[in-house]
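Colleagues,

For the teaching module next term, I've prepared a clean inverse folding example: a structure given as tokens, and then the sequence designed for it. I'd like students to try predicting residues themselves before seeing the answer, so please don't circulate the second half yet.
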């Protein structure tokens, strides 16, 4: 995976920076805390693996997200600006959507226009999100009440159904929704299974020192690298990618922070995952290592932050049997 700079997001570049400094002083988000909340959430999803590759479950989740939840968020943002946590299936596709900032902004403009009393939008007016420890009950009553008011005949909590659903299942029939979402959220959900394997199961990713260093590398060097080379596609190490994902889960802050630090909103494309020789990812990774070393005099490679190898769907299907042995 790597980063691009969407033309739609291009803004005037800022003056040079030295690529060093404390991440907490440069971003609106506490990136270490955000990473820990994200890892908790990814573990919750891992306990409901149908959310990776069950096309029927994902189609329903996308419908619920688009037709019920996004309008709730748009109206709530206009009214009180509070963060709301969605039902697990909806929160998951919302999570995947935010990991492509350009698509998230493009696909949600219609609902934000409907929710705005003025009808006028700027680039930062995307549906507000802040990852909460929602599965521990925070804000549960408020979000359930808003859901029931908007969709009284639609169940809010379907975790029991998710527990019973198979890992793989095709869509039968149609969800009868003329979706305005152009981004392939079902495919994006499937890719997150591999990301979970790379970071969420490793204990050092919950170590504050490891995450603090990762956040500083992300803000002070990776974003700075993009500012200095705005037209290049760079591939991060996984410690940096973990922080990058967590940052994107606060989309309004992410837009503001990367615009200020990079000169434009930095897009994210996790569909670039072919590691074969001469692939885009492989060549980009080599270029990233070389450019990083030239600009900063050290190496992007980090102990504990590197690629762990491929994790296949077949391995995930066998995982319950292996754990039972």
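(Answer key — instructors only)
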């Amino acid at each position: 995976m790597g980063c691009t700079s969407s033309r739609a997001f291009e803004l005037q570049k800022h003056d040079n920076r030295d690529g060093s400094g404390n991440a907490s002083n440069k971003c609106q988000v506490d990136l270490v805390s955000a990473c820990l909340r994200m890892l908790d959430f990814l573990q919750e999803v891992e306990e409901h693996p149908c959310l990776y590759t069950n096309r029927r479950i994902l189609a329903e989740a996308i419908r619920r997200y688009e037709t019920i939840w996004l309008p709730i968020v748009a109206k709530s943002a206009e009214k009180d600006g509070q963060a709301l946590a969605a039902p697990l299936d909806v929160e998951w596709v919302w999570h995947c959507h935010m990991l492509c900032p350009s698509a998230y902004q493009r696909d949600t403009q219609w609902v934000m226009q409907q929710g705005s009393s003025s009808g006028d939008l700027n680039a930062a007016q995307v549906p507000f999100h802040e990852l909460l420890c929602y599965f521990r009950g925070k804000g549960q009553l408020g979000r359930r009440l808003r859901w029931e008011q908007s969709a009284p005949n639609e169940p809010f909590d379907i975790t029991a159904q998710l527990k019973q659903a198979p890992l793989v299942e095709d869509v039968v029939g149609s969800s009868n929704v003329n979706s305005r979402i152009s981004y392939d959220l079902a495919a994006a959900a499937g890719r997150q299974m591999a990301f979970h394997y790379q970071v969420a199961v490793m204990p050092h990713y919950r170590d504050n020192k490891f995450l603090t260093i990762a956040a500083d590398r992300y803000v002070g060097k990776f974003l700075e690298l993009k500012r200095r080379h705005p037209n290049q596609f760079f591939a991060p190490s996984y410690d940096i990618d973990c922080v990058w994902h967590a940052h994107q889960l606060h989309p309004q802050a992410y837009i503001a922070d990367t615009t200020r630090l990079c000169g434009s909103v930095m897009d994210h494309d996790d569909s670039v995952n072919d590691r074969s020789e001469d692939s885009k990812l492989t060549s980009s990774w080599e270029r990233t290592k070389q450019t990083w070393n030239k600009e900063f005099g050290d190496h992007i490679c980090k102990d504990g932050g590197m690629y762990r190898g491929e994790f296949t769907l077949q391995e995930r299907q066998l995982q319950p049997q292996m754990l039972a042995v």
